[in-house]
């Protein structure tokens, strides 16, 4: 089942060049998938009350053309898969009014029991609600995220209350915000982000002190988010 809706934007969704930021792209895509969940009666807040929530394990985003201020946008999303499993993939994209793809994304999610602190299988009932399609936007799976130890810049940060979501953990888009603090100024002035990936390993909590470390590999910026030298999340970006 393909779910589609208009995407409304605000002035603070755009940078100084009038381009939609990568964090806002993620938020728009996430809200799109949440709205579909509500539509198929898999309500996110109701799931939390039952103690079972969807957790993201990875985002993959390709920017075909950066949305700009005054662009009229619509979003489309659908689930993929042939049978219930421990994880599922969701396809999302931002389109213009001519249905040209501006941003395409894939998210990997799992159902998580908050009380047991364990992954639970996706039931046939939940699987059927989404009426999954077989169309994926990416033909390959990305390799395991590895950053290495050749860091050119490191900053220390602390988790704020505003970084914490309704589940009580640092919200998934906040990790991209943390990583973006290390994007070089020359990239922000002269380049546009063309693809990015966020991989989640562990959950930061309110008050945690952590480090963001920047390295480069080929044409990619790699940002690792570490607490006590343990990788909690990884971000990979390409710019041009």
Explain this structure:
The chain is built from five helices and eleven strands, in the order βααβββββαβααββββ. By secondary structure, the chain is of the alpha+beta class. The protein folds into two domains: 3-129, Hotdog Thioesterase (Thiol Ester Dehydrase, Chain A, Roll), CATH 3.10.129.10; 153-239, Thiol Ester Dehydrase, Chain A, CATH 3.10.129. Strands 1, 2, 3, 4, 5, 6, 7, 8, 9, 10 and 11 form an eleven-stranded antiparallel sheet that branches. Strand 9 and strand 10 form a beta hairpin.
Compact description:
The protein has 240 residues and is of the alpha+beta class. It contains 5 helices and 11 strands, in the order βααβββββαβααββββ.
Number of E-type strands: 11
Task: Report the principal-axis shape.
Answer: globular
Instruction: Please state roughly what percent of the residues sit in beta strands, choosing from under 5%, 5-15%, 15-25%, 25-35%, 35-45% or over 45%.
Output: 35-45%
H/E element order: EHHEEEEEHEHHEEEE
Instruction: State the helix count.
Output: 5
Distance between the termini: 34 Å
**What class would the helix/strand composition place it in?**
alpha+beta
Q: Considering DSSP H and I runs of 4 or more, what fraction of the residues is helical? A: 10-25%
List the uncertain runs. Answer: none
CATH superfamily of the largest domain: Hotdog Thioesterase
> Can you tell me the CATH class of the largest domain?
Alpha Beta
CATH architectural designation of the largest domain: Roll
| Overall pLDDT level | 94
- How does the major sheet shape up? 11 strands, antiparallel
Rg is: 18 Å
CATH topology of the largest domain: Thiol Ester Dehydrase, Chain A
Number of domains: 2
